[in-house]
């Protein structure tokens, strides 16, 4: 627990940010369970609207539960903001933005109900925002940080890969637009680009297909390119994930025998058997 947090504020901080404390461990389970239940609620609500209705016909059980979850997640966001050592840093961090967005839908319902009633797209968007609560679970999955670190380390190579991919899609899409034309379904460049994306990823919906011999040759080349290119990001990510995990093993050093190379979730030294400090002691959250 940081020195600046004492008393009630310190206990709240430990429950929200430090999962190695007893209160933090129980709070972690509570937030994971709340996030999962709220997401399941969205699926049930969208699939069977109005299935359970209270005595007041205007207030369904779904709305009452959404009131509850919105209050819980709003309280979580405010407490994290108040107890964080750097409130602005938390507010503009990835999980800070997710915490804020996932608490907003009901407030939009409340202050602008005509938006949800008149525009079905807005209603679906608000439901999707509630689905983002599932991302909150990633906060409590320690191995997820390996994925984020690997993505950040490989960002330049991945950007180069996707840049080349976009160029290929534009070239082949434009080529098919010229070869096939509107009479065969390639009515515009965006439609042709859509076809190229579906073909390169070897999905092949079949809603747009080439009819000329030259068009079929071009599509065959694009399919072969797709098989060759689709495995590149997998190899890049595997390489960087291995590098990140090896680097983290070297950082886990036993304070007694100074042995390194421990797994991220190891609790005891593999050499002397002494207890290892938790990862949160090596990298404190804000």
UniProtKB/TrEMBL annotation:
GO biological process terms, semicolon-separated: action potential
Keyword vocabulary terms for this entry: Ion channel, Ion transport, Membrane, Potassium, Potassium channel, Potassium transport, Transmembrane, Transmembrane helix, Transport
One Gene Ontology molecular-function label: voltage-gated potassium channel activity
Keyword check for Translocase: no
Residue span, Ion transport domain: 27-247
Keyword Membrane: yes
TM spans (from-to): 30-53, 59-79, 91-110, 158-179, 217-242
SUPFAM superfamilies per the UniProt record, alphabetical: Voltage-gated potassium channels
Name of the molecule in the record: Transporter
Domain of life: Bacteria
One GO cellular component, as annotated: voltage-gated potassium channel complex
Compartments (UniProt record): Membrane
């Amino acid at each position: 627990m940081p020195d600046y947090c004492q008393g009630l504020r310190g206990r709240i901080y430990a429950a929200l940010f430090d999962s190695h404390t007893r209160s933090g461990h129980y709070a972690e389970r509570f937030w994971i369970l709340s996030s999962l239940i709220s997401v399941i609620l969205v699926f049930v609500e969208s699939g069977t609207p109005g299935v359970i209705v209270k005595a007041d016909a205007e207030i369904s059980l779904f709305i009452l539960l959404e009131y509850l979850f919105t209050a819980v997640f709003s309280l979580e966001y405010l407490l994290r903001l108040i107890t964080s050592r750097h409130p602005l840093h938390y507010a503009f961090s990835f999980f800070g933005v997710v915490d804020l967005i996932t608490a907003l839908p009901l407030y939009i319902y409340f202050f602008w109900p005509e938006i949800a009633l008149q525009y079905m797209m807005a209603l679906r968007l608000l439901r999707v925002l509630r689905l983002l609560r599932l991302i909150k679970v990633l906060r409590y999955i320690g191995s997820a940080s390996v994925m984020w670190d690997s993505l950040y380390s490989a960002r330049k190579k991945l950007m180069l890969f996707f840049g080349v991919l976009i160029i290929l899609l534009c070239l082949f899409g434009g080529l098919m637009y010229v070869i096939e034309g509107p009479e065969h379904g390639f009515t515009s460049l965006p439609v042709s680009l859509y076809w190229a994306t579906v073909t390169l990823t070897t999905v092949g919906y079949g809603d747009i297909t080439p009819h000329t011999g030259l068009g079929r040759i071009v599509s065959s080349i694009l399919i072969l390119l797709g098989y060759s290119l689709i495995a590149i990001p997998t190899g890049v990510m595997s390489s960087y994930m291995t590098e990140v995990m090896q680097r983290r093993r070297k950082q886990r050093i036993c304070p007694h025998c100074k042995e390194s190379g421990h797994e991220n979730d190891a609790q005891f030294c593999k050499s002397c058997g002494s207890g290892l400090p938790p990862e949160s002691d090596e990298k404190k959250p804000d």
